[in-house]
Structure formats: structure tokens, C-alpha cells
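Task: fold both queries, return C-alpha cells.
Query 1:
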Amino acid sequence: MERKMLRKALKLFGWIGACALVLAVVAMVAVRNSEALQDRLVAIGVQNNVVAGLVDDWGGDNLEVAFCGTASPMGNGPRAQQCIGVFAGDKFFIVDAGARSAARANEIGLPMGRLNAVLLTHFHSDHLSALGEMHLASWVRGRPSKLDVYGGPGIDQVVDGFNMAYGLDYGYRVAHHGMAVLPPANAGLRARAIDAPETGSVTIYEEDGLKISAFTVPHPPITPAYGYRFDYRGRSVVISGDTKKSNRLAAAAQNADVLIHEVLQPQLVKAITDALDAAEVDALSKLLTDTLDYHTTPVEAAEIANAANVDTLVFNHLAPPPPNAIAARIFMRGVRDVRPQGAVMSDDGMRITLPPKTGDGPGIIEISGN
């Protein structure tokens, strides 16, 4: 009896599956052959995307971080290069703007019209190559003034170069779309020079409860290279910039809620250089080998986080970006021996939310989107 009922149930499920398959095929044929249906589906999809892009729930009472690029120049995976958005109240800053990061910022829904400034840690190309696109993305979304760009000595040269390269583009767009849509007074980048001491830090921005400090980190031959600390409503985020293992960074990050630290995994780099050596690609092998002496390993970053009494350590500027789960496990080798918990790897689209501190206990740290 039970077998008979089972056979009937299986037969029924088979008919249901067959009907579903037929309906799916009919729907596919209809979509392929009906221009009206194609137009309707595209209109619905576009409308949903536009509405989703207008949602702005960033910042408010919280200190928040959005990862709009987590890769180093090594590798050709889907990650954008270095880019970190930081929100505090109605303030919005981006730290570094590597290749593809402006597109990623738009893709994950960052409110580009609110962008106050870009903070450059240093002037390697993978930290600034999308600066022109960041300018355009924020200008067309209504940024109310020129885009401030903070950086160390040499920032004037960088900003002047981008303004010269994109100057014709500014004019073309104003002429085409009109001054009401793209005010020419808001076109262009504006340099904001930072002169941080060799030890300690300097406040570069302080308004409405948000304090941003800059400090130097060792990334020779680049001098100076900077990291940044954001403090807002009792919460704090520190971004290392590119650096070797640094006691200066540990001092600047003392008792921070989140330390976002660049990392290079030497075993994975060696695997790449061994393959390049075998293929006699000597110049590229040397370039990658040279990176070993001015970055920080994941284990070293964990040691810095411990020394700084940081709650959560986030690995970023991944060198090389792990292309699969096996490489990701290699990336984390030895980290748990030094820091059993509180260490995660970043990914594009990851979001960290730090609500205001209440009481004496540890603050809440919410991580999503990775």
C-alpha cells in the first residue's frame, strides 16, 4: 500500500516537474519573440535598480565602513583595487581610489553625491588611478563643491595632473548637459596637503563630532606614506595604508574598534615568482619579489592588532587576492596561533557598522555583505 502511494506521489511530482519545465520553455520562447515583453521586463529591472540606487542608509548615528576595493595590483580577479569608504553622520570620505573602485562604489550603492573628500595614503598607481572616475561619479550625482583630495607632499602635483588630464572632459560635459545639471564651479579636484609628524599624528579634519587623524607609516622608498584614524561618537576605525610592520601604526591604532590592515602572503607570492622564474619572466618575478620588503604579512598584522588592543582586525589590500578557498586558507595560516579570534578577510561590498558607544563594555561591531 505504502509503495503504491509512493509511486503515485513520484508520478505526481514528475508531472509537476514536467509542467514547470514546459512553462519555463514557453516563457523563454515568449521573451525571445515578444519585443513588448522584452521592453516591459527591462523597464521593470531598470526601475528596480534606480530605486535601489537612491536608497541612502549610510552613516547616521553610526561610524560605517564600505569596502569598494580590496585587491593589490597582483592578480586579475574580480576585486577592485584599494578603496575604503568611511561614513560618520552625514560625512562621507573615501580612502584611496584604485583601479575599478569607482565602478565598484557605484555598484554597491555608495551615495557618491555626498562625497566630501578622497584621502590618499600615498601615490602608488593602485591607490589613485580611479581618482578621475571618483570625481565624475560624485559630480554627476550632485556633489556641491570641488572634490577635496588629501595627501602628503606631492599632492599638488597629483591633483594638477588629474585636472589637466580631465580638463577638456569637464568642459565637454558642461557644454553638453548644461551648467544647471553640472555646475562648472564644482568641477575639478582641490589639493589638501598633509604634513604629519614622523611620530604621533596630526588632526586633518574635525567637524560635527568626526575627527580624522593622519600618521606616517614605513613604505620605503615612499616618504611619507600615511595611515588614517577616524573617531566618531566613541567608535574608531584605523586604516593602515601600505606599510611594513610598524610600531607607529600600533601606537596610532591603540584601543581602536577596527583596524583595517594591508597584508601580503609570502607563500602565495613565492608560488607566483617560482612559476615566473620557471617561465623565465625575470622582470615581473623581480617586481613581485621586491614587494616582500615593504608590506606586512597576515601574522605580523595580527601581532600589531594585539599590540594595539584592537577589537577587530580586517585584512585588506590583499597581495595576492586569493582566487579560491584553498588560497584563502593559505592566506590565514598562522593567524589563529597569534590571534585566535577577531581577524577577518575583507571583500568588495563588505560593510562594517559601528553604532555609538553606550556604557563601559565593548561596542557592537556588525559585519555584513561579504
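Query 1 returned. Query 2:
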Amino acid sequence: MRSTATEPGGFRAFAGRALRAILPFAGEAGGATERQVFVSSVRVGPRQHMLMLIDERGGIVGRMPLAGRGHDIAIDPARRRVAVFARRPGYFAVLVDVASCEPLATITPPEGHHFFGHGIFSADGRLLYATENNFDGEHSRGVIGVYDVSGGTSARIGEFETHGVDAHEILLAPDGRTLVIANGGIETHPDYGRQKLNLAEMRPSIVRIDSETGDLLEEAVLDPALNRLSMRHMTFDGGGNVWFGCQWEGARSERPPLVGRIGKDGKAQLMNFPDGIAPLARNYIGSVVASRDGSTIATSSPIGGQLFFWDAASGDFRDCVALPDGCGVAPTEGEAFLATAGDGRVMRTEHGQLAPLARRHEQFDNHLRRV
């Protein structure tokens, strides 16, 4: 294993000049510290991608060029930084200062690894944990790369196993120490692009790992008959339960449950859509996000063009609203959410109602985070 240390250097200077050329002032909202701020990767033109900060009304707070398409963003509230990860198979992550919207450091995985598009900061912001694919072997395996981002550079200081393949979203548990990782179960290799190589042998899981020792603490799996139900995105509800969303890699005619919850007993329980609702999801769940008060879970299906809402306490389905190509969801206040779509729309949703806020020319990518 080799460490990776990267100075901001020329990339930071280039991005800073580009940002000032695009946004000579702090932004439409008057600065990244005055309002609720949300962050997403966006597409601004052919092969042109940026990180974009918006306020709760969809106004631009800041933008920063990216070297390629981004996916998810990790938030470091203690130091007012974010880390944007490249879409899988990804080979960069960028640490960004929220106030200035300028890059602080660029992180690259070691040879034989690529990022899966997700990461999480430690509670104190000193470390960044990234889900990675180690494809330098006969079979791919999921690992967590550990990066020291406490200074002006980044350094890879270790890694540990995720005990599965296709390690996707990663969460930090409320205890501030345990990591929760969704192993989607799909083997891929960059030589074959995004081709899925092991659908018949898939074994998705959600694991809990001690971030200090790398020890496996708990593993939740589904019934073997549902081995093609890839567990990918997660959130914690107000009671500390893990909610997860899935993508079905089996027959398109089948309609398995796509949303589930792992309780304190460590067992995965799948939730059922009401009759007539399941086909709307088209066997694909993108983002999974809890409301600020932890009482409502929002799940999105960009393929189906729907947002689905669940009662966190009972697990019951509440309602759904149509949002074509909508995937990014983030909590605002109470039970309300901000939602974004690939056609540039920014919406507010609460209690089954969807209200338009803005229509931007930028095309929002899969995930939206509240800073």
C-alpha cells in the first residue's frame, strides 16, 4: 500500500481563477454562511462538470470546476469543508472550503483502486473514509481507504476490508466511531467500464465496522432469493435505525421490495410499496435521506421519476410525488426536503406536496447534501 499526498498547487489556482471568472461576487445568495446551504455535483455542458452550492431557494452560492463527473459529497461541519467524489469508477476526490468554494486538496486512490463515489468524515474532521474498489487481483473486493486530511495536504494512512464487493455509501454512526457500509454486491472492473460481472453470484450486505480497528462488528444480509437486490444507499432515522435503498438486478418483470430498515437487532426488514405504487419505482432507488427531525424517510427513483416517503417509526409508506429525473434529496427543516432533478429543477416537498423553487440551466447529479 502506498500513501497519497497531494498539494493543491496548480489545480487550486486554476479552479480559483475559473470560479472568479464565473462568479465575481460571493453568489446570488450573498455568501455561503448566511443561509441554509446545499451542495451537489452538476453538469454544465458536454463533458463539463462542477460542484455547486445553492441556498434553500435554489439560488447559487458558489461553483467550482471538477475534472470529471462527480457523485456524492461528504460534509465536514466542524471545519466547514466538503469532499466531492468522482462517479465510479472514480479517480479523484476534492476537498473544498465552503466559504470560498475553492479547492484545498485533491485526493487520488492508490494504483489498482478506484473510488465508488462516496465517503464520510470522522467526527472531528481529521480523517476521510472512502469506499473503494480494489481490482488489483483475481476478483475485486471492497475496501475503505483512510485519508488524513487534517492539514493542507492529504495522505492515505491505511485501509480495511468491507467484507464484500461494490462498497457504496458509507455512514458514520451516531456513536461517532462505528462505520456503516453498504456492499452492493456487484463486481466490476475498470477494464470493462460499468459492466456487471457477477450477477448470479451477488451477495449484497450492510456491515458495521469499527473505524479505529477495522473489525467487523455486524453484518446484515437479505434472503438468498433476493441476492440480486443490490443494497446501495442509506441513512439513519431519528431512532438510530439504518434505512437503505436498493436496485434490482433481476428480471425487469419482477417487483421486489426496494426499501428496508435495519433495527437494533441488526436484522434487515424490507418495506412493501402499496399495490400499484411499486411499478413507479422501476426497480431502482437512488437517494435515501432522513428529515431533520428523523421522522420521515425520503427515497428517490430518478429512473421512475418519483419521490417516495416513509414513516420512520412504523415503517409504513406515506405517499409519493412525481419528479422526473429527480434523485437528489436533502432535509431542510421539520419534515420538509429540498429535491433536485436532472433538468435543473429545485423543488421543496413536504407532506406529499411539491412546490417549485427554481429552474437552473445546470443539470443536477444524483446526490444533494445539506452543509
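Both queries returned. Flag for query 2: The first strand starts at residue 37 and ends at 45.
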